[in-house]
Amino acid sequence: MKKVVIITGAGRGIGAATALAAAREGYAVAVNYLSDAAAARGVVDAIVAAGGEAIAVPGDVGAPADVARLFETAERELGPLTALVNNAGITGGLGPFMRADPAVIADVFRVNVLGLMDCCRAAVASFQRSGAAGVIVNISSTAASSGSAGDYVHYASSKAAVEAFTMGLGRELAPRGIRVCGVAPGMTETEIHARGGDAGRLARAAPNIPMRRVGQPGEIAEPVVFLLSPAASYITATTITVGGGK
């Protein structure tokens, strides 16, 4: 069966690295993005130039209508879905919890939790239609276990919800042959910190990481692709930490 994966938030950072790695392993890739069409097109062009198959599909994973359109487009243009990587996520800015805007907190949960759940529901429905023994990989964060006090407790809480959901859904779907796993990256060299309002955060954090450096997007992508592969066939309902020992 042809391997087809949707990767949300795949225009940049970890999502883009995962799209390139998945294509290298023979996946046709639907590169989802929110607003940066040029970045998503660059990922697609790189995959096609290497002999792979990919399309760029815009959409806000926190909007159910966009999720439905994403899955319909991917299946129509690439074929039946066999995998999903839920990478899209937002931090909602940095700062103490008591100063966090309730509307921003709600938006973080809309995208990071409810949107991810909606994508999982759509993926499972697709697997069931085609009979695929599909795989879902949800991107969490080491913030889920640290709590990120003083930085973004709301974001950490959303990622803790993702890990609980990954465990529960993975156990629920295991008898059907569908695997649900997670990857929790530590500090990684992406734009998310600058967009959150603290461009220097990575440099400050590096000395406190046992490996004394932050991760690179490709170092997160490789475990994701491993979990998608038959080599991980007995792994489900669990989240792997990729954080340099932190």
From TrEMBL:
Keyword Oxidoreductase recorded: yes
Q: Alphabetically list the UniProt keywords.
A: Oxidoreductase
- In Gene Ontology terms, what is one molecular function of this protein? oxidoreductase activity
Kindly give the InterPro entries that the UniProt entry links to this protein. NAD(P)-bd_dom_sf (IPR036291), SDR_fam (IPR002347)
Recorded family membership: Belongs to the short-chain dehydrogenases/reductases (SDR) family.
Note the PANTHER family from the entry: OXIDOREDUCTASE, SHORT-CHAIN DEHYDROGENASE/REDUCTASE FAMILY (AFU_ORTHOLOGUE AFUA_5G02870), SHORT-CHAIN DEHYDROGENASE_REDUCTASE FAMILY PROTEIN
For this entry, the protein name equals NAD(P)-dependent dehydrogenase, short-chain alcohol dehydrogenase family
